[in-house]
Design goal:
heterodimer, A: about 290 residues, mainly alpha, ABC transporter involved in vitamin B12 uptake, BtuC, 13 helices, B: about 350 residues, alpha/beta, Rossmann fold, six-stranded parallel β-sheet, six-stranded mixed β-sheet, 10 helices
Chain lengths: ~290, ~350
């Protein structure tokens, strides 16, 4: 039973990471740095709460959240692809913008700078523990999102083009791949995926609270890097990070390990990965570079 | 590159503008005869359902009962705070209040710079010099401190008396001395009525983000409830909203903090440990009006009605009369000094 509870909790914690890391892997494979995952998630969470509140349906919430992710990613895409802005700076700007705009709209809509009213979510309200998982369709989508992305990236024409424009955009262009269009698609897709992670958070809490993503986008990005930009490995990294978090939650009560220690695990692993301790971690070679 | 700066400029401008826009009411015109009070809110501003709203309530009462004119400033991020305080001080307000411990350094600096203006800081963190002695704030600065450990003690006793379990839960936001105060007070309250009870303490993280992570709060609470805890007290900002969500899921209880949080999960909030920021702010304004204002450290505990627990129509059914009587006895003992509540680990 304890094991079951542990696994259920790990999956619950992993779902937002999986969505956001899927988005991160997609955009970065296309050569666009994804520091803005945090902003997409926050926007997605806000959109989901607003949609579920006014639409009185969790599915409308999901759609609204994805739409917000689309818009934010559109800003990132236009900035980095059309205007060739520095991708890191634009990403940070998107994150700051998402924090500010959600806070402002929260106050405008609900006269609170803290949280939205309670909204509908998925599944039965009063089911605790492991069972609560199965009733949330976003959990199921979250579990298959990485395998699905792996299929898209490695087995479809679109995936081939994504990898091509991320590795060598000029070569891709020379054989007729519409580089910018592929990158737009990848970035917009990444925004919608990461926003799903945010929507999951908001619907699981039945509300939006100010800055509720609390750095999850950065952990997801760490998972992408730790997973060497490979969807399957990034997915496993998400599960690993979520498992570490669950372990920390479970161990904290016993006060065996200082909470500071477990909190740093994702980042330490990322540094380890980037330093090349476990295999070589090679980013897409055109990552962060604009193409003419 | 020019385009990059253009885009960034637009984004940053939008960000800045949005953080300054206030949804309602412009600032009241400043200064002249009478009692002019300036209040600078902490991040979140009005509508945070916590300190800022408490300060607003106190100011509102002062407007009604003392005829004070109050001007509010809601800063955005970081450096706007100091600018807000300076603006009010330079305009010659009679009293300038900063809401939140984050104002500590700015208040100290401005109090030295404007010796003729009275300042007050809610949750002002009194600094300690190298020898470990507290450094007194400037003579025109009042540090408004709350005895959170006393209020936490009472909700700890309450949790142990109605929790129907030997295990009680505590969830803190950022793992820091400020929050340990709540934890040790709570644990002392539990032990006072149930010596063999155990408090399971958890923290949401080690950064300020830990106060805004309801997802983490919910998972922490679920794991505690699954271990047989029936009541969890949180001192974790909006992370605690996740605790209430878990309480709802598991049909158990949470205890709120700072303000009455009953409405966040009606039926699942046993009580709340309230900090009467409104009383403290009103008290300060009244002192300025009566020319009784002095700098120094003000402690608002149970005796001054600065902290307390919620007992009203919403939760009366959950708290038997015998428990209520016990809590009132404990409260009287604390006020009388028969019980000394610890405030640090």
């Amino acid at each position: 039973m304890t094991l079951l509870l542990f696994l259920a909790q790990t999956i619950r914690i992993a779902v937002p990471y999986l969505f956001a890391a899927a988005g991160g892997a997609l955009a970065e494979r296309a050569g666009i740095v994804s520091l803005s995952l945090e902003g997409y998630m926050l926007g997605g969470a806000f959109g989901a709460a607003i949609g579920a509140y006014y639409g009185e349906s969790a599915w409308i919430g999901v759609m609204a959240g994805v739409a917000v992710g689309f818009v934010l990613a559109g800003m990132h895409a236009v900035g980095t692809i059309r205007f060739k802005a520095d991708q890191i700076v634009t990403g940070i700007a998107i994150n700051l913008f998402a924090v500010g705009i959600t806070r402002f709209l929260l106050q405008l809509a609900f006269d609170s700078s803290s949280n939205s009213p309670r909204v509908v979510g998925f599944g039965a309200d009063n089911v605790g523990g492991a069972l609560a998982l199965a009733s949330n369709p976003l959990v199921w989508v979250g579990v298959v999102v990485m395998p699905a992305l792996a299929f898209v990236v490695y087995r479809t024409t679109f995936g081939l083009r994504v990898r091509a424009v991320g590795e060598h955009p000029d070569a891709a262009a020379s054989v007729g791949v519409p580089v910018n269009r592929v990158r737009y698609a990848a970035v917009l897709g990444s925004g919608m995926l990461a926003a799903l992670g945010g929507a999951y958070l908001a619907l699981d809490q039945h509300q939006f609270t100010d800055s509720m993503t609390a750095g999850r986008g950065f952990i997801a990005l760490a998972a992408v890097i730790f997973g060497r930009w490979d969807p399957a490995r990034a997915g496993l990294a998400c599960l690993l990070f979520a498992g570490a978090e669950t372990l920390q939650i479970r161990l904290q009560a016993a006060q065996l390990v200082p909470s500071q220690f477990v909190a740093m695990i994702p980042y330490v692993l990322t540094i380890v990965a980037v330093a090349g301790v476990v295999g070589r971690s090679v980013p897409p070679s055109a990552l962060g570079r604009t193409s003419e | 590159m020019r385009r990059l700066f253009g885009l960034l400029g637009v984004l940053l401008a939008a960000h800045l503008v949005l953080s300054f826009v206030r949804p309602e009411g412009a600032a009241t015109p400043p200064v002249g005869e009478g009692l002019d009070i300036g209040i600078v809110f902490d991040l979140g501003g009005r509508g945070d359902k916590s300190f800022n709203d408490g300060a607003y309530l106190g100011a509102e009462r002062a407007m009604r009962e003392l005829g004070a004119r109050v001007r509010f400033v809601e800063p955005g991020e970081g450096s706007d705070r100091e600018a807000g305080l300076r603006l009010l001080a330079a305009e010659g307000m009679d009293l300038v209040i900063g809401v939140g411990f984050i104002f500590t350094d700015d208040l100290t600096e401005l109090a030295n710079e404007y010796p003729n203006v009275a300042f007050a800081g809610v949750d002002y963190a009194v600094t300690v010099d190298r020898a470990g002695n507290p450094v007194a704030p400037p003579a025109n600065l009042a540090a408004l401190k709350f005895r959170e450990e006393q209020g936490s003690f009472l909700v700890g006793a309450l949790a142990a008396l109605v929790g129907n379990s030997k295990k009680l839960g505590f969830i803190g936001g950022m793992d820091s001395p400020l929050i340990h105060k709540f934890e040790v007070g709570y644990a002392a309250g539990v032990k006072a009525v149930c010596p063999d009870c155990q408090v399971i303490s958890q923290y949401a993280g080690v950064t300020p983000e830990a106060f805004r992570n309801p997802g983490r709060g919910k998972e922490l609470a679920l794991s505690a409830y699954q271990q047989g805890v029936n009541v969890i007290y949180h001192a974790s900002g909006s992370t605690g909203l996740g605790v209430f969500e878990a309480a709802r899921t598991m049909q158990k209880f949470g205890i709120g903090v700072d303000a009455d949080q009953f409405n966040e999960a009606p039926g699942f909030v046993l009580s709340s440990m309230i900090k009467r920021v409104d009383n403290a702010v009103f008290d300060m304004i009244a002192r300025v009006k009566d020319e009784r204002f002095e700098g120094g450290v003000y402690q608002y505990g149970l005796e001054q009605d600065g902290v307390g627990y919620v007992y009203d129509d919403n939760n009366r059914a959950l708290i038997p009369d015998s428990v209520r009587a016990r809590l009132e006895q404990l409260k009287a003992d604390i006020i009388a000094g028969k019980i000394i509540v610890p405030s640090s680990r």
